[in-house]
Design brief:
The protein is mainly beta. It has two helices and 15 strands. It starts with a helix and ends with a strand.
């Protein structure tokens, strides 16, 4: 029992209730109702956010965690990969809409993570400097991700994305 308490105390940095995320900056401690377990949350630890698929929470979730990130698309058709700092908690029929754009005048070819029959796969969005695409997500919880490559330019290009 003591080992479980030590593991929880040392590894748990956030408390999640379905449909709600508590982040490190939001709460300083989470305590159980029993006297035998107490979990302290570090204010300096980074906690991934949770974005729910419920439409009534969509605006609040977007404010709490503007999902997305950046990836370097290397030249020579090698793939750079990045995942969002915000997880998506899907539901049956749920879709994730990705928007991506390049910095500068160099095009990139981008793929985005989606789900088919519970397995994550890559959806090719094509090449260019900007795209918006909605992909199946379903009843899955994961971090949206992209991969990008650049066939032009000697340095590649940075691709920013949002979801």
């Amino acid at each position: 029992m003591m080992r479980i308490k030590e593991l929880l105390t040392s590894t748990m940095v956030g408390v999640m209730v379905v449909g709600t995320a508590v982040t490190a900056g939001t709460a300083s401690a989470a305590e159980s109702t029993s006297d035998t377990a107490s979990v302290t949350q570090s204010a300096s630890a980074e906690v991934p956010h949770l974005q729910t698929s419920r439409s009534d929470d969509a605006d609040a979730d977007a404010q709490q965690c503007p999902g997305g990130g950046s990836v370097w698309a290397p030249p020579g058709y090698r793939w750079g990969r990045a995942q969002s700092s915000c997880a998506v908690l899907g539901s049956p029929g749920h879709e994730v809409t990705y928007t991506w754009w390049t910095r500068g005048d160099v095009d990139a070819c981008v793929g985005v993570r989606y789900y088919s029959n519970g397995e994550d796969r890559w959806w090719g969005t094509g090449c260019g400097s900007f795209r918006r695409v909605s992909v199946p997500w379903g009843n899955n919880a994961d971090y949206p991700a992209i991969r990008a490559t650049s066939g032009a330019g000697v340095l590649g290009v940075i691709v920013d994305f949002a979801h």
